[in-house]
Design goal:
The protein is α/β, with parallel strands linked by helices. Helix content is about 40%, strand content about 20%. The strands form two sheets. A seven-stranded parallel beta sheet has the order 3-2-1-4-5-6-9, with helices on both faces. A two-stranded parallel ribbon has the order 7-8. Helix 1 crosses helix 7 and helix 3 packs parallel to helix 5 (about 135-155). It is globular, with a radius of gyration of 17 Å. It starts with a strand and ends in a 6-residue tail after the last strand.
């Protein structure tokens, strides 16, 4: 199985990458990154991409024969709403549209759907008119990403499926004092979250939106 991965230099993405490398069912990993990864493995190919809004032909070719994408690219804190929309919404949907265009005919013929696994967050709000008390703009942007992904999966249901994971606080694998405090609220350990994302990339199907309490269950 061939998997596209983003965000592999981040806290969650690094764990996803490590588990992908260890999983025998995954034979090829294409990691989209702005810089080289400090990791060498025969299964891993790092593709340098300076602009996540544009995919030159040399990069698009790497998407051929891919079965799934695990999208971990994003930032928990952004300086303004325009930056949040660019990173969270525009980057994600640019990739989705490019991936959907590549290999769609072959997927229809084989009745195989491309699986897009998206890392969202428990505070994302899909109801764009709902009053919010904190991080209003950012939460609405994350919710809008979910809305557009679900709409895309509905429009391209014969070739594309999406799974959105909405974790609460993401804790380190090793228990520590800070995580004890964080763990008082909705939370999940990073290795469990990564494993859940990979499982959905491998198997597909199931619920389109997975809440924190359902991750890994």
């Amino acid at each position: 199985m061939k998997v596209i991965l983003t965000g592999s230099t981040g806290f969650i993405g690094r764990e996803v990458l490590e588990q992908c490398l260890q999983n025998p069912s995954i034979t090829s990993i294409v990691a989209l990154s702005r810089r080289d990864l400090p990791r060498s493995n025969p299964k891993l190919k790092t593709v340098i991409l300076d602009n996540f809004l544009e995919y030159p032909e040399s990069v698009a070719r790497e998407f051929e024969a891919a079965d799934a994408c695990i999208w971990c690219l994003g930032k928990a804190r952004v300086p303004d709403n325009d930056t949040a929309r660019k990173i969270c919404l525009e980057y994600t949907m640019a990739a989705v549209k490019k991936i959907s265009d590549i290999g769609a005919t072959a997927r229809r013929a084989t009745k195989q759907k491309f699986r897009f696994v998206y890392l969202s967050g428990g505070a994302a709000e899909r109801d764009q008119s709902k009053p919010l008390w904190f991080m209003q703009d950012y939460r609405r942007v994350r919710g809008e990403v979910e809305n557009q992904l679900l709409a895309h999966a509905d429009a391209y249901g014969d070739t594309f499926e999406v799974c959105i994971l909405r974790p609460g606080l993401v804790l380190a694998k090793e228990r520590n004092f800070v995580d004890v405090v964080k763990g008082l609220g909705p939370s999940v350990r990073v290795d469990r979250l990564a494993g859940a994302m990979i499982l959905r990339a491998l198997s597909g199907g199931g619920r389109q939106v997975v809440e924190n309490g359902e991750i890994g269950s």
